[in-house]
């Protein structure tokens, strides 16, 4: 059944909320998230991109919105065009591809989000190694960054899924 969407601007609202909550959560919980070797990265913008892609995968503006969100994320939080300008469109394309195999259910959206977080963190690690910004071993990366980040984001997904999905559901035209 083809879904007809209206109020497409709600996607932008959801992404903006994820964008600002991402930075706010990082700042508010920074003593706990970045303690010692532990580096946990909240990925709320990525979560909202996954949910928006499940909702409107064939919208022509979604790729450009992902690119813009990644660019804006990089410029706002780091001041440089960088990793998220690459990561956000790649994640959109990956989730759009996964939709061939995934259903429109909570567990599939969670799985797509976990895959997205995994891919984003691996890209960030690979780029840090490539540009000699890190000399962290693969085992340290997995135990101090990847696993805690995935677990933390699963909890965040469970908390934020229902409000985000209800907002996105307002786009469906009956």
What is Rg? 16 Å
Structural class assignment: mainly alpha
Q: Number of domains in the coordinates?
A: 1
CATH topology-level fold name: Arp2/3 complex 21 kDa subunit ARPC3
Number of helices: 7
Low-confidence sequence ranges: none
Query: How many beta-strand runs?
Result: 2
Can you list the strand order of the major beta sheet? 1-2
Separation, N- and C-terminal Cα atoms: 11 Å
CATH architectural name: Orthogonal Bundle
Give the averaged pLDDT, no decimals.
91
Q: Identify the CATH class.
A: Mainly Alpha
Helical amount among residues, as a percent range? over 70%
Largest sheet: 2 strands, antiparallel
> What is the string of SSEs from the N terminus onward?
EHHHHHHHE
How much strand content do the residues show?
under 5%
Instruction: Characterize the overall form.
Output: globular
Please explain how this structure is put together.
There is one protein chain. The protein has 174 residues and is mainly α. Helices cover 72% and strands 2% of the residues. It is built from seven helices and two strands. The chain has helices at residues 9-28, 30-33, 44-55, 62-77, 83-98, 106-130, 138-169; strands at residues 4-5, 172-173. The chain has a two-stranded antiparallel ribbon with strand order 1-2. The model has no long low-confidence stretch (mean pLDDT 91).
């Amino acid at each position: 059944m083809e879904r007809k969407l209206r109020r497409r601007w709600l996607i932008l609202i959801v992404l903006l909320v994820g964008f600002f909550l991402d930075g706010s959560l990082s700042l508010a919980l920074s003593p706990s998230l970045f303690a010692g070797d532990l580096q946990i990265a909240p990925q709320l913008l990525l979560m909202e991109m996954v949910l928006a892609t499940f909702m409107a995968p064939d919208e022509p503006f979604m790729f450009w919105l992902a690119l813009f969100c990644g660019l804006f994320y990089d410029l706002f939080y780091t001041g440089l065009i960088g990793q998220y300008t690459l990561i956000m469109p790649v994640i959109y394309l990956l989730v759009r591809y996964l939709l061939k195999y995934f259903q429109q259910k909570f567990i599939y959206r969670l799985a797509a989000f976990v895959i997205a977080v995994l891919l984003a963190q691996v890209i960030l690690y690979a780029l840090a190694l490539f540009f000699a910004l890190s000399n962290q071993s693969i085992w340290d990366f997995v135990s101090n960054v990847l696993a805690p980040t995935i677990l933390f984001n699963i909890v965040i997904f469970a908390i934020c899924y229902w409000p985000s999905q209800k907002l996105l559901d307002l786009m469906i035209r009956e």
